[in-house]
Amino acid sequence: MTLWKASTALLGTVTLAVMTGGAASAAPASPGGWQESGTSYVNSLTGSQGLASRADGGLLYRGLGSIPLDLRIKGWGHIGDPDIADGHTFDAYQGGDTARSKMFAVTTPAGKRHLYEHRLDAGEKLNNSFAAVSPDNQWLVSGEWGDQHRLQVFPAPLLNPSTPPTGGAIAQAGQITLDKPVRDIQGCDFASATRLVCASNDASKDLFPEDRPVLQVDLERPLDGKPVTGRVTSLFAAPQRSMCSGTFETEGVDYDAARHTLRVEVVPPAPCLVTTAVHAYKPTTG
């Protein structure tokens, strides 16, 4: 969630070899049943905040440079981890420190954009870290920053018939109550109707053994707009490999169900942060 800032001048001065490092050893099989299968790199200016897989296998990326000027002028200065459902792109936006609303933008396959704004409820944080649409295209999951015992659920803007067809206000539905706390969730994506995979930027090891863990949330039933509980387990630590030393940041996560590929983004320390690593995983079983 950090509002990453890097000048375009820096983008042209640091080479890929310095940014990504040289020979990183092959990762062993992950404890959660995932085997790292490769790493690619994306320009952080337009790709460090999140990613989503298209039906054709291509990837959509989002970064601070992805925010349209008209939305930036309106105060929407941060974009989160996106999702794609039924050909529609879902983007999560948040405003500044005094914001009283959060916003989801939905872009149709024809390129028409609709804005759905949610007025913050009592006790709700302004953060809008990600958008994750359920496999039935009816519910949208998002999350707040810091220590949380919940994930937020909204009717999926535009796709859920209870939402306005051309944008407008949306309210929360029944939330996901987690059986244990999570911290600094940067992105989530559905792996099935009852399972989410989430990326945490928590390096403390207070809540889970791993540094910046990738988490799994198993729901008691598919989302239906009513309160539901979720069981949290840790899968593996997001890789932290770079020629640069310092603090890494875990960002977006995506699961491509058609190709059984999980991807996790990690931004390396400065000055290597101009390029974001995208680590891909394949299941070791099933």
Structure description:
This protein has a single domain, classed as 6 Propeller (Neuraminidase), CATH 2.120.10. 6% of the residues lie in helices and 43% in strands. It has four helices and 20 strands. The strands form four sheets. An eight-stranded mixed sheet has the order 9-10-11-13-17-16-15-14, with no helix packed on it.
Helix content: under 10%
The chain-level structural class is mainly beta
Radius of gyration, CA atoms, in whole angstroms: 18 Å
Q: Which term fits the overall shape?
A: globular
Number of helices: 4
CATH fold descriptor: Neuraminidase
Describe the secondary structure blueprint for this structure:
Blueprint lengths: L7 H4 L4 H5 L13 E10 H4 L2 E4 L5 E4 L6 H5 L4 E2 L3 E3 L2 E7 L6 E7 L5 E7 L12 E2 L5 E4 L4 E9 L12 E2 L6 E8 L1 E8 L2 E6 L12 E7 L8 E10 L11 E8 L4 E7 L7 E9 L3
Parallel strand pairs: 8-12, 13-17
Antiparallel strand pairs: 1-20, 2-3, 4-6, 5-6, 6-7, 7-8, 9-10, 10-11, 11-13, 14-15, 15-16, 16-17, 18-19, 19-20
In short, what is this structure?
The chain has 286 residues and is mainly beta. The chain is built from 4 helices and 20 strands. A hairpin with a 6-residue loop joins β6 and β7 (101-107).
